[in-house]
C-alpha cells in the first residue's frame, strides 16, 4: 500500500483494505466533515503544502488524493468515461438549491448572515426579538405602531390552553424538548376549527405561527416550573418577550443582564436558511399539513444530536476539559481518535460563525456579573487550541458559548435544546409561510443500487 493510502487509513481510522479508488467523502461514516478536515490537515503536514478551500473541495475521493500526492497539486475533473457518466448523487442534498428565498442570506465563505437583508450584527446589537420576529414573519422591520401591534398580538397568545398546560405537568419527568414536541403537537387540537378536507389558508397559517411564537416559550418555561416543583408565574402584562419568558422559567424577576442575553440569543438563533429542521418544516407544510404540524416536525428534527441536539452536548465540554491549561491536551486526544470537538465546525461556514461573537459577549457579561469566569476561560482555551483547524472551516459555532450562559443563569444543561427552539420558532414560521405561498410538493429521488429482478422462491418461473 502506498504511503498516501496509509495516511488516509490512519487519519480516518479505517482498515487499509477499505482505501479504494472509489472511496469518497461521506460515502462511509468515518469520512464525515470532521474526518475530511483531519485528512486535509494530515496532508498539509505530510507534504508541506497549504490545502486551501478549492483543494479541500477537490480532494473528495481517494483517486483525487492519490493524484495530488503523486505530484499534481491541482487535481482536476476525472476524465469523461463511463464511470464518470453515472448518476450523480448529492448525499444529504449537499450543494442543492431546491427553491428561492427572501428570508435569510448566508455566505459561508465570508461569514455573512442576514435576515431579509439586515446584518445579524446590527440586529443582535440594536434590535429586540419582537422586531426580528416581525421582520421574519411579515417581511419588514416594524415602525413604532406596527411593533406595538405585533407585541400586543404576541401577548394575547401567551396563555396556554388548560389541557395542554396539564399535559406539560404530566410530562414533568420527560426531557424538555420531548415534552415540548408533544405539547406543541397537542396545541394543534386547540386551533380554529376548519371544515374537513379544507387546507389552512395563508392568513390562518400566519395566525397559527404567531400564536406558536408566543406559546412555545411559555411551554418551555411552564414545563421547567413543573419539574422544579412550582407553579408557573404569570408574567406582567407589559413585560417584553424575553422578560416574560425568563420570569416564568426562573420563577422570579430576571436581571437586566439575563434579559439582554436571552434577547440576543433568540435573535441570533432565529433563522438559518434551509437547515435540516427548516427543511423539515417546509416538507410538512408543503404537504398541506398545516403550521402546527410543520413546527412539530421541525422540533422533532431539531432535537437530533447532529442538529440542535448538539447544543446540549457542547456544555459537557467544559466538564471534560476541567481547566484551561488542559485544553490543548484534550483537543489533541480527541483528534488522535478522530472524534469531534463539540462546538466547532458547521456545514455552511468556512470561517467564523457570525453568531458566535454575540453569544460570547453576553457570556462575558454574565460571567463577570456572577464572579465566575472558569467556564469562559476553558472555552476560550479550547478555541485557541482548535485554531489550526479554523482554516478548514472547523471554527467555533453557535453552540459553543450558549450552554455556558444557561449554566450561569442557574439552568440545567438539558434545557439547551428547548431554549434554542424558542428563538428558532420565528424562522420556522417564516420559512413555512414562504413555502406555503408558492408551494410545490418536495419529493426528491433516490438512486437505487440494490439487486434487481430477483425471483421469489416458489413463484411461477422461479428456479428450482
From TrEMBL:
State if Transferase is listed as a keyword: yes
For this chain, one GO molecular function annotation is: citrate synthase activity
Domain of life of the organism in this record? Bacteria
Entry keyword annotation includes Flavoprotein: no
Cross-referenced PROSITE patterns: CITRATE_SYNTHASE (PS00480)
Q: Which pathway, metabolic or otherwise, does it act in? A: Carbohydrate metabolism; tricarboxylic acid cycle
This enzyme's EC code(s): 2.3.3.16
Q: Which InterPro entries does the entry link to?
A: ACP-like_sf, Citrate_synth-like_lrg_a-sub, Citrate_synth-like_sm_a-sub, Citrate_synthase, Citrate_synthase_AS, Citrate_synthase_sf
Give the GO terms filed under biological process for this record: carbohydrate metabolic process; tricarboxylic acid cycle
Stated family: Belongs to the citrate synthase family.
**Record's protein name:** citrate synthase (unknown stereospecificity)
Amino acid at each position: 500500500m502506498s504511503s498516501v493510502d496509509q495516511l488516509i487509513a490512519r487519519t480516518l481510522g479505517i482498515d487499509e483494505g477499505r482505501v479504494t479508488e472509489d472511496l469518497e467523502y461521506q460515502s462511509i461514516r468515518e469520512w464525515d466533515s470532521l474526518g475530511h478536515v483531519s485528512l486535509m490537515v494530515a496532508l498539509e503536514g505530510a507534504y508541506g503544502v497549504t490545502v486551501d478551500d478549492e483543494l479541500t473541495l477537490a480532494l473528495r475521493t481517494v483517486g483525487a488524493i492519490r493524484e495530488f500526492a503523486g505530484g499534481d497539486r491541482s487535481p482536476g475533473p476525472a476524465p469523461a468515461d463511463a464511470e464518470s457518466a453515472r448518476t450523480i448523487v448529492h448525499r444529504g442534498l449537499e450543494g442543492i438549491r431546491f427553491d428561492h428565498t427572501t428570508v435569510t442570506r448566508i455566505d459561508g465563505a465570508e461569514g455573512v448572515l442576514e435576515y431579509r437583508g439586515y446584518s445579524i450584527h446590527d440586529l443582535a446589537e440594536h434590535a429586540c426579538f419582537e422586531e426580528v420576529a416581525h421582520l421574519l414573519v411579515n417581511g419588514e422591520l416594524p415602525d413604532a405602531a406596527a411593533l406595538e401591534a405585533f407585541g400586543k398580538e404576541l401577548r394575547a397568545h401567551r396563555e396556554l390552553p388548560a389541557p395542554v398546560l396539564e399535559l406539560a405537568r404530566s410530562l414533568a419527568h420527560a426531557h424538555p424538548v420531548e415534552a415540548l414536541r408533544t405539547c406543541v403537537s397537542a396545541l394543534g387540537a386547540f386551533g380554529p376549527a376548519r371544515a374537513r378536507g379544507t387546507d389552512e389558508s395563508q392568513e390562518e397559517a400566519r395566525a397559527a405561527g404567531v400564536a406558536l411564537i408566543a406559546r412555545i416559550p411559555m411551554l418551555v418555561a411552564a414545563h421547567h416550573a413543573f419539574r422544579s416543583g412550582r407553579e408557573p408565574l404569570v408574567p406582567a402584562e407589559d413585560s417584553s418577550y424575553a422578560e416574560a419568558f425568563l420570569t416564568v422559567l426562573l420563577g422570579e424577576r430576571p436581571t437586566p443582564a439575563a434579559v439582554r442575553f436571552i434577547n440576543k440569543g433568540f435573535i441570533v438563533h432565529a433563522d438559518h436558511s434551509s437547515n435540516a429542521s427548516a427543511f423539515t418544516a417546509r416538507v410538512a407544510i408543503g404537504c398541506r399539513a398545516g403550521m402546527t404540524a410543520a413546527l412539530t416536525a421541525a422540533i422533532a428534527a431539531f432535537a437530533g444530536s447532529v442538529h440542535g441536539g448538539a447544543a446540549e452536548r457542547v456544555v459537557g465540554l467544559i466538564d471534560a476539559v476541567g481547566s484551561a491549561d488542559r485544553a490543548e491536551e484534550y483537543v489533541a486526544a480527541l483528534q488522535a481518535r478522530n472524534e469531534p470537538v463539540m462546538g466547532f465546525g458547521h456545514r455552511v461556514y468556512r470561517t467564523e460563525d457570525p453568531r458566535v461573537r454575540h453569544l460570547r459577549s453576553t457570556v462575558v457579561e454574565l460571567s463577570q456579573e456572577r464572579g465566575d469566569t472558569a467556564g469562559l476561560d476553558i472555552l476560550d482555551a479550547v478555541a485557541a487550541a482548535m485554531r489550526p483547524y479554523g482554516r478548514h472551516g472547523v471554527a467555533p459555532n453557535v453552540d459553543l458559548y450558549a450552554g455556558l450562559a444557561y449554566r450561569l443563569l442557574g439552568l440545567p444543561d438539558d434545557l439547551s435544546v428547548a431554549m434554542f427552539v424558542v428563538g428558532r420558532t420565528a424562522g420556522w414560521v417564516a420559512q413555512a409561510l414562504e413555502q406555503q405561498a408558492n408551494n410545490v410538493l418536495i419529493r426528491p429521488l433516490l438512486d437505487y443500487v440494490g439487486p434487481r429482478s430477483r425471483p421469489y422462491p416458489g413463484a411461477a418461473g422461479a428456479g428450482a
